[in-house]
Write a structure and sequence with these properties.
One of its GO terms (cellular component) is endomembrane system. GO terms for molecular function: manganese ion transmembrane transporter activity. Keywords: Membrane, Transmembrane, Transmembrane helix. By secondary structure, the chain is mainly α. The protein has one domain. About 80% of the residues lie in helices and about 0% in strands. Helix 3 crosses helix 6 and helix 7 runs antiparallel to helix 8. It is elongated, with a radius of gyration of 26 Å. The protein starts with a helix and ends with a helix.
């Protein structure tokens, strides 16, 4: 009895601890990517303009224009990309659906052969394929997953992708502009806030990687800071030349 209870507790502990992080990133990857893109691009744009010794009103206008242009560009690009991908997947699903309707036995045999290649015995593979092929929609889902590597019921939404890209980019791009909107007249508060935002984004990325939060944060801070420094130097150089 004690042995059975011990085994049950071990299985329970294994079940409770045997969980994995979302290795695809889920919503976190595109959201953080969009925010970091907005931060880096708008910070670099603003520091490049500020390097030309322009008025702070010009820097603010540049930041707001960069926010709007970048957010709309990200949204349009993401919508087109995801919509095109979805249309391609739906076209392939239509092909598979027609094949299942016209050649059900061939598709069933194809599925059995696939399971055989994965080590299932021929008799069992044929029986599994036969049972799975009874329902046309279930058969379509199985074939799509096995042959195309997709889930027909979990296709990405172009609208959701565009809206999330727009929002995350705009949020990131807003950080360098925010100090100016709150009354700042110098560049350094905008740079400081943007760098803190970059560190925070990098730390959040550590949730879906094996890196420590401080390493990811410092890496992103260094990359964003380098971009801002280079564009400021270029702005100073070209500003003096003009």
């Amino acid at each position: 009895m004690a042995i059975i209870e011990t085994e049950a507790s071990l299985h329970g502990a294994h079940r409770d601890n045997h969980t994995h992080r979302d290795v695809t990133g889920g919503w976190l990857r595109p959201a953080v990517f969009g925010a970091m893109d907005g931060l880096v691009s708008n910070l670099a744009l603003m520091t490049g303009v500020a390097g030309g010794a322009v008025s702070h009103q010009t820097v603010v206008l540049t930041g707001l224009a960069g926010l709007a242009a970048g957010a709309f560009s990200m949204a349009a690009g993401e919508y087109t990309s995801v919509a095109s991908q979805r249309e391609l997947v739906e076209a392939e699903l239509d092909v598979e659906r027609r094949e299942l309707r016209k050649y059900p036995k061939d598709e069933e045999r194809e599925l059995a052969e696939l399971y055989e290649r994965r080590g299932v015995t021929p008799g069992l593979a044929r029986e599994v394929a036969r049972q799975l092929s009874k329902d046309p929609e279930q058969a379509l889902e199985i074939h799509a997953r096995e042959e195309l590597g997709i889930d027909p019921g979990d296709l990405p939404s172009p609208t959701v992708a565009a809206a999330s890209s727009f929002g995350s980019f705009a949020l990131g791009a807003l950080l360098p502009v925010l100090p100016y909107l709150l009354g700042a007249t110098a560049l350094w508060p905008a740079v400081l806030l943007a760098l803190l935002g970059l560190f925070a984004c990098g730390a959040v990325v550590a949730r879906v990687t094996a890196r420590t939060w401080w390493y990811s944060g410092l890496r992103q801070l260094a990359l964003g800071g380098a971009a801002a420094g280079v564009t400021y130097a270029l702005g100073s150089l070209f500003g003096a030349a003009v």
